[in-house]
C-alpha cells in the first residue's frame, strides 16, 4: 500500500468515529462551590486538618434519574428533606462529596444534566 492509501484510510476511520457533542461551558455556572478553597484532591483547610466539601442538588424523584447520577457520582447519597437548595416534593435531595478522583469533572457532568438546576455547598450545622 502506498502512503496515500494509508493516509486516506486514517481519514476515513476518523470520520466514521462517533463524535461527542460539544460540552456546554454554561454548566459551570450551576456549580456554586468555591474551587479556590479546594486543592487538587478536593480537600480544603489547614494541612493538618483537611476535609472534603459536600455539595447538594435536587433531582426528579425517580430511579431513572437516580441511576444517571450514580453512574457519574459514586459519592452521591439520597437524603430526605429539602436541603438548602430547596428540593420540591417531587424531587430527591442528593448529597455528594469532593473527596473523589476527578471531582471537578464529576461536578461538571452532574451540572450538565438537564434536570440539575444548581449545585450548592453543604454547610453542616
The side-by-side strand order for the widest beta sheet comes to 4-5-3-6
Q: Any guess at the CATH architecture?
A: 2-Layer Sandwich
Arithmetic mean pLDDT: 88
Just give the CATH class. Alpha Beta
Summed up, the helix count is 3
Structural class: alpha+beta
Proportion in β-strands = 15-25%
Give the N-terminus to C-terminus distance in angstroms: 70 Å
Order of helices and strands: HEEEHEEHE
The amount of helix comes to 25-40%
The 3D shape can be described as globular
What are the low-pLDDT stretches, counting only 5+ consecutive residues below 50? Answer: none
Rg on CA atoms, Å: 20 Å
The fold-level CATH name is Alpha-Beta Plaits
Count of distinct strands: 6
The number of distinct structural domains comes to: 1
**How many strands, what sense, and barrel or not for the largest sheet?**
4 strands, antiparallel
Highlighted features:
alpha+beta, two-stranded antiparallel sheet, Alpha-Beta Plaits, 125 residues, 3 helices, four-stranded antiparallel sheet, 6 strands
Element layout with pairings:
Layout: H1 3-16, E1 43-44, E2 51-52, E3 54-60, H2 63-72, E4 77-79, E5 91-97, H3 103-112, E6 120-121
Antiparallel strand pairs: 1-2, 3-5, 3-6, 4-5
Structure summary:
With 125 residues, the chain is of the alpha+beta class.
Characterise the protein shown here:
With 125 residues, this protein is of the alpha+beta class. It has one domain (23-121): 2-Layer Sandwich (Alpha-Beta Plaits). Helices cover 27% and strands 18% of the residues. It has 3 helices and 6 strands. The strands form 2 sheets. The protein has a 4-stranded antiparallel sheet with strand order 4-5-3-6, with no helix packed on it. The radius of gyration is 20 Å and the shape is globular. The mean pLDDT is 88.
Amino acid at each position: 500500500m502506498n502512503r496515500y492509501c494509508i493516509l486516506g484510510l486514517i481519514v476515513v476511520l476518523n470520520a466514521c468515529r462517533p463524535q461527542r457533542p460539544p460540552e456546554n461551558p454554561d454548566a459551570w455556572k450551576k456549580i456554586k462551590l468555591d474551587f479556590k478553597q479546594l486543592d487538587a484532591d478536593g480537600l480544603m483547610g489547614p494541612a493538618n486538618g483537611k476535609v472534603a466539601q459536600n455539595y447538594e442538588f435536587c433531582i426528579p424523584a425517580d430511579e431513572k434519574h437516580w441511576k444517571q447520577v450514580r453512574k457519574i457520582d459514586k459519592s452521591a447519597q439520597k437524603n430526605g428533606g429539602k436541603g438548602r437548595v430547596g428540593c420540591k416534593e417531587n424531587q430527591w435531595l442528593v448529597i455528594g462529596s469532593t473527596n473523589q478522583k476527578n471531582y471537578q469533572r464529576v461536578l461538571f457532568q452532574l451540572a450538565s444534566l438537564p434536570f440539575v438546576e444548581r449545585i450548592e455547598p453543604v454547610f453542616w450545622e
